[in-house]
Amino acid sequence: MNAAGRDPVDEEGFPSSSAQLPHEEEEEEEEEEEEEDEGSFAAEFYRCGSDWSCLLPPEKKRKQANLLEIWGLNSNINNDNNPNPSNKAKKPKQANLWQMWGLNNPSTDKVSNNNKTTNPPPPPPPTTTTPRACPFYKKIPGTPFTVDAFRYGAVQGCTAYFLTHFHYDHYGGLTKAWFHGPIYCTPLTARLLTLCLSLNSSFIHPLELDTEYVIDGVRVTLLDANHCPGAALIHFRLPNGQCYLHTGDFRASKLMQSYPLLLHHRVNVLYLDTTYCNPNYRFPSKEDVLSYIVRVTKISLKKQPKTLIVVGAYSIGKECVYLAISKALGVKIYANAARRRVLHSFNWPDLSSNLSTEAKDTSLHVLPISSLRFEILTDYLNNYRNQYAAILAFRPTGWTYSNKVGTELDLIKPNSRGSITIYGVPYSEHSSFTELREFVKFLKPDKIIPTVNVWNPTNRDKMESYFREWLKGERR
């Protein structure tokens, strides 16, 4: 953070590399003293709802207080060179708190009491907390709306806060103390806000998928994002006919090309999930990865029937992986009580009916994806040594993808140590590079705003070059 309470940004209003937190969309922007160039990437969006009024000048630098003054001691300490060694040390006195803080006392008033003149009690040190400015790409131009912008508190001029899905890098900033305005999301996400964050339900406004709502004069429709449960694309249609589509996080699919709203309404600006906007990421389909996982599981059980199957997962997401194994093996799914409460809130009968409350009753367990380490899994196996001799674990994430493997999943080499085997499988709930390209070429937007990996100007330039290539001759 700089002195004004902001992270550094570059000339286009995107966070610099030093401001980016790993694995989170930690983006902020800061006002530039010079005018934006007319042709700059963000210039026209700064004119559409960006608010810089909350910026404050940098606070003055405080000086270091003298420690002897803080302790209330005289700096002339007696020693062998003191010409008056017989002088007695003065009795320490209470230091002035303003001196302790290294500040000048702003008050010159004196209070007289019994012929003693003292300063009035000092007030507490001033607070210099400055609200974060909401980045331009989290505001929808021409509307009083923001998307996934909760960590910026009350955004000036915002009357409706939209949440695409219940992952922390999108809902971060929401607590049970939220009071800044109404929150719009899918019904499933709304249930999670109440269940997990204890949000005041009066602020939560669930919107059904594929249903048009009019909010502050804007037509708003939520569409399935093919990401985690409850995730939505948000389509905004303004009174002037302009259309904006915010993808949140999504995995583009052929099915989306049949969405009537996307077929019949031109998208002027696309806010795009660019997590894997890199040609090195060309995942196989989710269906192919699930088939591979089931196949590996069955082969492993033939070799060692006393194998415990473990699937790593986030708080929500990756449910299709352990559901596929459950159905293929005819076994139930064990998850701890906290995860079960979340899973039951989905209201998915196939999932709820297959959850087990007892770990020893099933050979399929779900653990946090961060727990898929040899040391942790070895300890976990020791708890069930009387039932199982080995663990087969799956880490399903696009970050495990390798160009050497590509779509030839049988080339994946697991990591093994003792009786623990861990497979990294490229099961992603974000779009691959090829899926992004196909989606953009279908949609043909006038402009694309990347929302992930924007902290590096080189990354943005590369993404812009991809966008230009995909849109060549594709304008509607």
UniProtKB/TrEMBL annotation:
Source species of the chain: Turnera subulata
Keywords linked to the UniProt accession: DNA damage, DNA repair, Nucleus
Chain segments annotated as transmembrane: none
Biased composition (Acidic residues): 24-39
Similarity section: Belongs to the DNA repair metallo-beta-lactamase (DRMBL) family.
Composition skew (Low complexity), residue ranges: 74-87
Renumbered residue ranges of the record's region Disordered: 1-42, 74-131
Domain Metallo-beta-lactamase per the UniProt entry, residue ranges: 131-281
GO BP, sorted A to Z: double-strand break repair via nonhomologous end joining; interstrand cross-link repair
Domain of life: Eukaryota
Entry keyword annotation includes DNA repair: yes
Cellular compartments per GO CC: nucleus
Composition-biased stretches (Polar residues): 102-112
GO molecular function: 5'-3' DNA exonuclease activity; damaged DNA binding
Biased composition (Pro residues): 119-128
Location within or outside the cell: Nucleus
Gene name tied to this protein: SNM1
Presence of keyword DNA repair: yes
Protein name, as recorded: Snm1-like protein
